[in-house]
Amino acid sequence: MAASVRRSAILPVSIAMFALGLLAIIAIFALFAVGYENLPVWLNLATLLCPAGFIYGVVATVLRNRRR
Q1: What pLDDT, on the 0 to 100 scale, is given for residue 55?
Q2: Which top-level group of life is the source organism from (predicted)?
Q3: Can you give the residue range of the structural domain that contains 30?
Q4: Stated pTM of the model
Q5: How many domains does the chain fold into?
Q6: CB 14 within 8 A of CB 56
Q7: How far apart are CA 63 and CA 43, in angstroms?
Q8: Could you write out the DSSP letters of every residue in 26-65?
Q9: First to last CA, the chain
Q10: Which of 3, 5, 20, 41 sits most deeply, having the most CB atoms within 10 A of its CB?
C-alpha cells in the first residue's frame, strides 16, 4: 500500500523566502563592490528573509514530522 503524502505550501514558501533573502544579500555585496554606500532600508530588511525562511522551513518540517 502506498502511503499518501500530504503536500502543503509551507516548504515552497520557506524556500522562496530563503532565496529572496539570499538574492538581497548578493545584491548588497554587489552594490558595495560597485561603490554604493547608502543602500535603502528595504534592501537591508530584505536580507532578514534568508534566516527567517530557513527557520520557518525547519520548524515547519519538524512539526509536520512530529505529527506522523
Answers
A1: 95
A2: Bacteria
A3: 9-67
A4: 0.81
A5: 1
A6: yes
A7: 31
A8: HHHHHHHHHT--S--HHHHHHTTHHHHHHHHHHHHHHHHH
A9: 17
A10: 20
